[in-house]
Design goal:
Layout lengths: L1 H29 L12 H31 L8 H10 L1 H26 L7 H12 L12 H35 L7 H11 L1 H23 L4 H5 L1 H36 L4 H28 L7
Helix pairs in contact: 1-2, 1-5, 1-6, 1-11, 2-3, 2-4, 3-4, 4-5, 6-8, 6-11, 7-10, 10-11
Length: about 300
């Protein structure tokens, strides 16, 4: 159970670390001149949250390295020595990925701290998103994605990396919209519904790309692991957990469709009628449910990676 919890926290932390600045950078570029910047949190609070998340990511990586080394070597933590730790870090793919992740997060921490001290308005630069994205993709070496060899192995790894980045972008957007909706619920500004409608429409394009990548890479990954057989879905622990994940993903897609084809058009109609509070309330509830489902999916992913598709 501690191993599953550690994997879950690692995945969620790095997905938010990547997804939130990606959303913020995109939102700042789309903001109407003179309008509110579409940040999930006030600038200072968001910068602090990202900084804490990056530091937390380094700590989680260190704990993960210790746990995996002792597990592989069959020793207790008190018996862990420098030679065993060095073997894991430099001789295994997961260990080298952990080293790369740590280096990327340290650079990100330094950059975030430097930018916070300068208080520049260009804080959410592409570099923040790129560093966080590279740290996130190193998690591909913690699961089945890095288990292949040769050209098929490279393709499997590329699909795993794309899946991670798309998931991080989507989960980051859900978290960002939830934060924005909760903030706007206490806002007295009359243009809140209009700005929300503008951002929902603007993000429909990237959201569609995220979903498309998740579906395509998920199908590719499953076919690669199972030889395109449906039997493992019903005769293995991995398959049954995957069915749970697919059911949760289908629920998220249903909510996304509800947003795009019903709630957002209804919000537009209410705005034209001079209101929008009812639709904002409905969106707030729907996005909160979507966020809870996203957390459940990350939990299922953290467990899935530890089971064999055929076991």
């Amino acid at each position: 159970m501690p191993a599953y919890a550690l994997r879950f926290v690692q995945y969620l932390d790095l997905m938010l670390l990547f997804g939130l600045p990606l959303f913020s950078w995109y939102g700042l570029r789309r903001t109407v001149p003179g309008g509110d910047p579409w940040l999930p949190l006030p600038r200072s609070a968001l910068s602090l949250a990202l900084l804490v998340s990056a530091v937390f990511g380094v700590l989680l990586t260190g704990i993960d390295v210790v746990f995996k080394t002792t597990e592989i070597m069959g020793m207790s933590i008190t018996e862990l020595d420098r030679a065993s730790l060095g073997w894991y870090l430099f001789e295994t793919g997961a260990g080298r990925a952990a080293l790369a992740r740590t280096a990327l997060l340290i650079v990100l921490i330094a950059f975030l701290g430097w930018q916070s001290c300068r208080e520049e308005r260009s804080f959410f630069s592409p570099l923040v998103t790129a560093l966080a994205g590279c740290a996130l993709l190193t998690l591909a070496w913690n699961g089945h994605a890095a288990a292949g060899e040769g050209a098929p192995g490279v393709l499997r790894l590329a699909a795993g990396i794309a899946h991670l980045l798309a998931a991080g972008g989507w989960i980051g957007a859900i978290a960002a919209f939830l934060m924005i909706l909760l903030r706007r619920s206490t806002s007295a500004k009359s243009n809140s519904p209009q700005l929300l409608h503008q951002m929902l429409q603007a993000f429909s394009g990237p959201g569609t790309i995220f979903v498309g990548v998740l579906v395509a890479t998920g199908i590719m990954h499953y076919g690669d692991l199972t030889g395109w057989s449906a039997a493992p879905l019903f005769h293995s622990v991995h398959g049954k957990l995957l069915l749970v994940k697919l059911a949760l993903f289908a629920a998220m897609l249903s909510l996304a469709a509800l947003h795009r084809w019903r709630l957002v058009p209804r919000l537009e109609q209410e705005i034209l009628a001079g209101d929008g509070t009812r639709s904002m309330h409905a969106l707030r509830q729907s996005v909160a449910i979507e966020a809870m489902i996203a957390v459940l999916i990350v939990i299922s992913v953290s467990v899935l990676g530890t089971f064999s598709p055929h076991g």
